[in-house]
Structures are given as structure tokens and as C-alpha cells.
Amino acid sequence: MGYDLVIFDNDGVLVDSEPIANNVLAGYLTELGHPTTYEESVRDYMGAAVHRVHELVLERTGERLPADFDETLQARTCAAFEQELKPVPGVEEVLGALTAHGIGYCLASSGSHERIRVGHRVAGLDGWFEEEWIFSADDVGRGKPAPDLYLHAAGQMGVEPARCVVIEDSLRGIQAAAAAGMDVYGYTALLPAEQLPGATGYFGDMMQLPLLLQLPV
Hints:
Layout: E1 5-8, H1 18-31, H2 38-45, H3 51-61, H4 69-84, H5 91-100, E2 104-109, H6 113-123, E3 134-136, H7 148-157, E4 164-168, H8 171-179, E5 183-187, E6 201-203, H9 209-212
Parallel strand pairs: 1-2, 1-4, 2-3, 4-5, 5-6
């Protein structure tokens, strides 16, 4: 295998959370007087940290979101996760294969640490990730598409960027990984490859990933 570290995005790659989270976000923004469809939420915010929501609403409307927006959004999202969240099919087999072959892995997510942990607990993935393998946009100054989060994760894991490969399902994430000097594979379960330009390669089924990484399951 040509990599020493596999860095996973979280939402939509490890846990099947993007449909849930974007429905919650679209509904909340609409409730606040900023009509937003699910499709618009995916287009504008998928893969981004929550500060992008504030910036885009202010830019478009001249209005600021409520001071408790982040807290309320997180509470609603976590509550929806508790009811609906599942792991991405095949991801536990992939993590098991990496573990069996001694390949390091971690995650780097635009979501908060609390959101990541709630999602992993509900989806049954909490046993796969040590606390020190979890990195959030909250840990760095700039979120995706800036390379900061992926460079931070690689640095904390002690691996050179060129020896890392990123697994992403959003354009911003792919741009962040490329800017960090890392190979990146686009997971196309939610968005087609044509909406995710710039990746090293693409796959639509998590069970295809070990083959791409030349790693037997």
C-alpha cells in the first residue's frame, strides 16, 4: 500500500449523516426566514464548517443569524441523529481491514467534536476511533476548503502529507485535501463524480475502497 495514513471525512463517509443534517439545517434556516431547500443546503453548506452558514446568510440578506444559532442547530442535529443515524454500509469492514494490516487512520471533520462523538455512539463506531484520532474544524483557524484541517491531522498523527490519502464526499473536502498535497478519493454515494472534480479517483461503494488502496478486506 502506498500510504501510511488514511484520513476519513466523517459526515457522509463514516456515518450516513448528510441527508439528516442538511434536512435539519434547511428546515431551521427556513424557520428563521431564510427559505432553504434540502438541495440548496447540500449545494451551499455540505462539507463546510458552520461559520459558512453565518457568512453566506449575511452576504445574501444583510442579516445576522441568532446568537444561539450554532447551539440550537447542534442540538437539533444531534437529536435527529439519535433517531435516524446509521454507519455508512461497509465502513466497519474497511476499518477492520486497515486495523488488520497495521495501517493508521483518523478522521478530520468540519463538524464539532460533540457532533462527531454523538454520531459515532449512535452509529456504533465509537470503538473504532481513539480520541486522539479525531480532528475537527474547531481545532484549526480555517475549515475546508483550506488545507489547515488535513495538515493538522497529518501533523498530529506524525505522517508527511504526501504519505496520506483522504476519503471525501464533498467538493470542499476534496479541495482541502488537494491543497494539503494529499491524494484524495471521492466517495460518490450522495453526489456524482462530476460534482466532485479534482479527486485522485472515485468510488460509489465503501467496499470498493480497499481495492483502490490495494488492501485486501
